[in-house]
Write a structure and sequence with these properties.
- It contains two helices and no strands.
- It is an all-alpha fold and about 50 residues long.
- The protein has a domain of about 30 residues.
- It is elongated and about 35 Å long.
- The two termini are about 15 Å apart.
- The relative contact order is 0.17.
Amino acid sequence: MADLYLKALESERKKLWAECRLKGLAKGTPERLRIEELDRLLAEHKAKRAS
């Protein structure tokens, strides 16, 4: 079964990362901070699924 939560997190991360690359945003901007938060959420979610 598809994990829609995981797909939504990954999709948002890809969109933000592309935007950051396009605009050349530095670390510490809200978009980059959200990417870091998404990375943490993805890691937590994948750890739960592995358990």
